[in-house]
Write the structure tokens for this entry.
Amino acid sequence: MNFIEHPENDPQYTGLNVNKGIVQPPVINPYLAKRKKRRDYTPAEYTEEIRKGNITVLSQAVTLLESQKTEHQTIAQEVIEKCLPFSGNSVRIGITGVPGAGKSTSIDAFGVHLINKRNRKLAVLAIDPSSERSKGSILGDKTRMEELSREPKAFIRPSPSAGSLGGVARKTRETIILCEAAGFDTIFVETVGVGQSETAVHSMVDFFLLIQLAGTGDELQGIKRGIMEMADGIIVNKADGNNIEKANLAAAQYRNALHLFPLPPSGRTPEVLTYSGYYQLEITEIWDMIDEYIDFTKKNGYFEQRRNSQSKYWMYESINEQLKNHFYQSPEIEKALAFKEKQVLDSEISSFKAAKQMMDIYFTSQRLHPF
Ligand code: GDP
């Protein structure tokens, strides 16, 4: 037999010996094929598994809600609706800071602290509209949070892939609902401290935490005024080694700057603390501060008021987004848009008149085939 399989083993070739090989394993993992596929679940089954804290099914449901396919969206929306009564029971925390501020390092340290010292279950989500999954998401990448990704009580989910900020934010907000139904009592929503995504994150969290660095000049130039105004707490990272003094100085400057702002609607002036995410110093103080804030706002009613106004905000956001999509996706508009644009550029009609004519085209088309 050997001779047929391996002619080199013929005794005439002295010194040559080819060993029998091993059977190649199948390309597809047979265990995967046996696993229940996503589409096999009904919305009720999804909800049941999510409620049991089944992380695999939770991930699958999030994938569904991130999908562009209408049939996936339909199931996802049903699951969200079924999970809604079991949601809301968590503290939602937005975390922002410029790239390099130490968000991943800090989230890793915060997460381990919360799970081990405060017995919490933590979901880490992200909003990063610039990311595309194929190119690797900047945020939410598990490898950035080494300790946390090994924790069974943590669920880390990267930002939904690129799309409009509104779309990405909506998906993250819906993911919060699913995570809460799965029993996560602390939700982080991370974002890069540049651009518009902070506003979106701010509109879905109970506490907005700003990570700052000493010595970047921001504290003097007040560049991030808008973001500072949104912050419920500011923490100056990398207060370790010979950077401690600079961090303390920066914290004092932030405190002074905050005193110039009016008292926020929460009734609490944001605190400014220093810490080290890398060396895990003064992490306890940060979580004491956040827990106190949550207690305070729950007592004075601001917590509930903020959540209510966020629900309202997202209803209107959702209406706006759907109307806009419906307008731009209607075939009549798609057909007429380029021509109208040209007419405006050629100064044949005013922008206002062009818009009015487009609206007329849209409404006429709607009368022919309504929504
Ligand atoms: P991100 O871009 O905001 O997520 O920042 P990273 O967490 O990736 O941190 C950026 C760099 O700062 C990394 O090289 C970290 O090791 C470093 N770093 C983060 N936290 C600390 C800290 O507390 N102290 C010091 N000295 N370095 C830190």
The pocket of guanosine-5'-diphosphate is lined by residues 97, 99-105, 237-238, 240, 276-279 (CB under 6 Å). The two ends are 72 Å apart (CA to CA).
